[in-house]
Amino acid sequence: MKHEPVKLAVTMPAHNEEPTIARVVAGVPRDIPGIDEVEVFVINDGSTDRTAELAEVEGATVVTVTGRPGLGSIFRTGMDRAMRSGASYIVNIDSDGQFNPDDIRKLVAPLLDDEADFVTCSRFATPEVVPEMSGVKLWGNKGMCKIINYICGGTGFTDVSCGFRAFNREAAYRMTLFGRFTYTQECFIDLYNKGCRIAEVPIKIRGTREFGESRVAKNVFRYGVNASEVILRAARDIRPLRFFGGLALTLLVPGLLGALFVTVWYLFAGRTSPWTSLIGISGTLLTLSLVFGAIALLADMLSRHRRISEELLYLTRKRVYANARTMRAAHVDDDDIGPVSLHDIPHEQRQPIMRELADSVSDRVVERMAAER
Hints:
Layout: E1 7-14, H1 21-27, E2 37-45, H2 51-57, E3 61-65, H3 71-84, E4 89-92, H4 104-112, E5 118-122, H5 135-151, E6 165-168, H6 169-174, H7 184-193, E7 198-202, H8 220-238, H9 240-269, H10 277-322, H11 324-330, H12 347-372
Parallel strand pairs: 1-2, 1-4, 2-3, 5-7
Antiparallel strand pairs: 4-6, 5-6
Helix pairs in contact: 5-8, 7-8, 8-9, 9-10, 11-12
């Protein structure tokens, strides 16, 4: 029986990382037991320095994206390229030198042992690996963990914001992300909801960049606002009953308490004053609670349809990315492309894919008819 080569694709988002990109690309281990082939994809996010040139010198495949579409879109582009290359496992690592690329060995170990589908580096799992960072950033990371753990039903993740992570093919096929600004927290919500096995590996990293400053977290307040927007939308779409039901319950409790208080006051005092205004307030809260309760039920029904659609998308991805003809048809030029993934490929790039699928089906129909004759 022919052995299918096991390929690891390493994706690196990069924007003006000339001082570190060569060292990070060269540091990617090529001799991992259980891996037959390693390919590095540098997703060049509109760099104006020698980032792309130096990455190519070190043997990386450079994919240049124009328009600065956001880190979430850059991540999806890297995942798309990795899947179309036939990768069995995909690692995403920053190109700024904060992570040691040799730690990729530790990160993919649970995947190779079939103990997880999605593995992330944890900077806070044990005291000895906690990096040096400002109190505000440390507090923000812990706060994000609490939010994601609550949304995921009481999980115990310790780091949901680290960009050093690994996926097997199953997780990559199932993952559907929409966030433009970031992707880190949305991955957890999406893959946990789809039943993927998630593991954390404690890894020591640099707490601060060696050169320049982070383009994502340089403004902690802005990062928190943008990340919260992504999280809220993911929670709304993936856990709608909990999301809208929580809003309904939040309005229901004060509405009932206000109505109960006015009722008791009226029974003992024989009048509603000076609390008459509570009648209108309580009525409004109870009405809004009823509305959000109805929305919760409707959203939960739509969520079931979403799960069906995502299962179809998963099966389509397996077929598209495993088909050599379709992979060639879906391949676009590496120079100056926009963000590309299966669910946000521009219209003009979708047509070759559909034509190739149609041709493939037609070929099989003709072969079957010939065989029947």
